[in-house]
Amino acid sequence: MPDSEDTPRVGIAMGSESDLPVMRNAAAILHEFDVPYEMRVLSAHRTPGVMKDYAETAADRGVKVIIAGAGGAAHLPGMIAASTPLPVLGVPVKTSTLNGIDSLLSVVQMPGGVPVGTLAINGAKNAALLALQILGTHNADLQDAVRAYKSDLTDTVEGMDARVQA
Ligand code: RP5
């Protein structure tokens, strides 16, 4: 299994390039934490063979967590989860017709035995943070960085509180 510091540890998959404005929020967080990732457009419906091959080979390529985002009949996270032992985090992408409720229900309602950890609609940022927290269970430096990130959040909200009270 590849094990250099450049080996992508997180795979970001999306069903269409139209998902990129949402899914690049995941990439931004991974970049901020200096965690190598790879990003692919893989469609459960339009490139099923490529998607399956990606999912089946990800673990052997050194990927530890997959973030998959799709909209509408959003089967990509579930179909990837069906083909890999890696944890899959699903991001339901907001749609123009049903506001992403269709995506959310498609991603979250997995059958027993094939879990997808489902984030909020357009929740790509939190998907990346959760991926970092998963990686952090085996990486003390990364866990410390997540701790510092949360501490910054606390400082930010305490600042808000101070301003509102002033
Ligand atoms: C899904 O269909 C994609 O994930 C995307 O959210 C949606 C629409 O895709 P495009 O028609 O924009 O390619 O498979």
Summary?
Catalyzes the conversion of N5-carboxyaminoimidazole ribonucleotide (N5-CAIR) to 4-carboxy-5-aminoimidazole ribonucleotide (CAIR). By secondary structure, this protein is of the alpha/beta class.
Name the descriptors.
single chain, alpha/beta, Rossmann fold, five-stranded parallel beta sheet, 6 helices, 5 strands, binds 5-O-phosphono-beta-D-ribofuranose
Task: Lay out the secondary structure.
Layout: E1 10-14, H1 20-32, E2 37-41, H2 48-58, E3 65-71, H3 76-81, E4 88-93, H4 101-108, E5 117-118, H5 124-136, H6 140-165
Parallel strand pairs: 1-2, 1-3, 3-4, 4-5
Bound molecules: 5-O-phosphono-beta-D-ribofuranose.
5-O-phosphono-beta-D-ribofuranose binds at residues 15-16, 18-19, 43, 70-72, 93.
InterPro entries: PurE_ClassI, PurE_dom, PurE_prokaryotes
GO molecular function, one term: 5-(carboxyamino)imidazole ribonucleotide mutase activity
Family: Belongs to the AIR carboxylase family. Class I subfamily.
Description:
The chain is α/β, with parallel strands linked by helices and 166 residues long. It has six helices and five strands, in the order E-H-E-H-E-H-E-H-E-H-H. A five-stranded parallel beta sheet has the order 2-1-3-4-5. Helix 1 (20-32) runs parallel beside helix 5 and helix 5 packs across helix 6. The mean pLDDT is 97. The protein binds 5-O-phosphono-beta-D-ribofuranose. Residues 15-16, 18-19, 43, 70-72, 93 line the site of 5-O-phosphono-beta-D-ribofuranose. Residues 8-157 form the PurE domain. This is N5-carboxyaminoimidazole ribonucleotide mutase. One of its GO terms (molecular function) is 5-(carboxyamino)imidazole ribonucleotide mutase activity. It is an enzyme of class 5 (isomerase).
